Amino acid sequence: MKAFTGASRQLSTALAALVLASCASYGPDPQAELKRADAAMGGTNLKSLRYAATGTGGTFGQAFVPGQGWPKLNITQFSRVLDYETGAMKEDSARSRSEPTGGGAVPLMGQGEQRISAHVRGEYAWNMVGPAPQAAPVQLDQRIHDLWTTPHGVIKAAMKNNPTARSEGGKTAVSFTQPGRFKATAWIGADGMVERVDSIHPHPVSGDTEVVTTYSGYRDYAGVKFPTRIVQTWGGSMIYDLNVSEVQPNAPTGIEVPALVSSFAERATSEKVADGVWFLAGGSHNSVLIEMADHSILVESPLYDGRAQAVLAEAKRIAPNKPIRYVVNSHHHYDHAGGLRAAAAEGITIVSSEMAKPFYDRTFAVPNSINPDALQKSGRRANVMGVASMRDIGNAARPVQVYYIENSVHAQGFNMVWLPKERLLIEADAYTPLAPGAAPPATPNANNVNLYENIQRLKLDVDRILPLHGRVVPLAELRTTIGMR
Questions:
Q1: I want to staple 104 with a disulfide (CB 3.0 to 4.6 A). Which of 53, 59, 214, 338 is the partner?
Q2: Domain named Metallo-beta-lactamase: which ranges (predicted)?
Q3: Strands (DSSP E) along 189-312, which ranges?
């Protein structure tokens, strides 16, 4: 009887395995589904594509209040050239604000448009600033993601990356991972059109970040199907709601990596501005190192690990026996917070506004698993200390006072650092000095005016301003810029 029971169990196990195998054989074949979609959308011989659109959107990572939605935009021009053969993309756009508050380089409400020319090819990302290329390594992952999550791009990427497939709700969901870049699931309708792409993308601040892109209203353009509406959210907040007006299959591309971009390397330069106070420049975003008796304080760790690590290395070179105890974050906007994970990975305490602390506590607990950053690799948890209005993190010999910039339209929970003995003010985005000799604007910038009002409110006897964009200037330059003599 026991032998019979054992044989029965073996037979049952074998039958269960056979049933599972049989079920798997009736599931959708991912490569077959991708080929079906590729043919239905006319992508089989599609090497490149250009489309143009207008619509609305949001400025990713530039929320007015930490953790809230991205500032809303009007997008009056938008075009992308997609080169699937070389892995390249060019995006040109013009954007203006549709709400008065929040960050980003878009001019203040009613004061014009921001024009962007953004590029990627292979392992290089850059922007065109006038005729000059400017490396943008912090944008590389995002632009690769944007290229390969387009309707035809996601099919081509999935074919190369061991896809899996399942049927759900009358659609086929094809999932894959582009190693080190993103994970995606393309939802393909019965007609073969890509209706939605759910993806997860690595980011220097928000870690594994959810992106949802929906495509609808497909039309035929010389045998290629492309949507007339594109809606995309990042981290649950709107980035694009675009109405496509023009599509050109197999458009000419000619996207080549400039020599200035391929040879780019992050570097941090140091300038002594007072005894024990160093201005760390060499890129688009500056930092400041303040030496104390037995440790150092760093103001700002921006952009991404690459920039942060160059700054940290320079700080260690300057003060090798004074470990960095604190890094002060000016505000929660992603370009200014992108290097905080790298600092936290070294056990440095992050000093933020009390308003931003819950946002950072929550965000820095999110893993960066697709492309592990320094914090992910370290296994540490970020330690964030909040400042409510004002806090001195220095000592009697060298006070280092962190103050809120109040009533700014740029951000809430907006910090500046005051060194009273040296009469130095450190700030970001509230004021970026004009080029030497440039005429003041006819209408003073509201952020510049607001900074001066805060200086007056706090009765700070400022000698020089150390801006986290631009050059060190005397207070007199700010006064001139806002029309005061």
A1: 59
A2: 284-469
A3: 194-203, 207-216, 219-221, 224-226, 229-234, 237-249, 269-274, 277-281, 287-291, 296-299
Secondary structure (3-state) at 392? strand
Q: List, for residues 59-98, the tens digit of each pLDDT value.
A: 999 999 999 999 999 999 999 999 999 999 999 999 999 9
Q: Three-class SS string for 7-72?
A: HHHHHHHHHHHHHHHHHHHCCCCHHHHHHHHHHHCCCCCCCEEEEEEEEEEECCCCCCCCCCCCCE
pLDDT at site 26: 59
CA atoms within 13 A on the CB side of 398: 15
Q: Give the H/E segment covering residue 353.
A: strand 349-353
Report which of 136, 143, 119, 92 is spatially closest to residue 257, judged by C-alpha positions: 119
For residue 20, the model assigns a pLDDT of 37
At 159, give phi and psi (nearest 5°).
Answer: -60, -30
- Convert the pLDDT of each residue in 89-137 to its tens digit: 999 999 999 999 999 999 999 999 999 999 999 999 999 998 999 999 9
Instruction: Using only the alpha carbons of the chain, give its radius of gyration.
Output: 26
- Burial label, 481 (beta-carbon count in 10 A; 0-12, 13-18, 19+): buried
Cβ–Cβ < 8 Å for 405, 451? yes
Overall pTM > 0.85: yes
The residue with tokens 């060194």 is 419
Domains of the chain: 45-259 (2.50.20), 265-481 (3.60.15.10)
Tell the residue number behind the tokens 């073969």, with chain if given.
192
Within 13 Å, how many C-alpha atoms sit on residue 447's CB side? 22
Give the pLDDT band (50/70/90) at residue 280.
very high
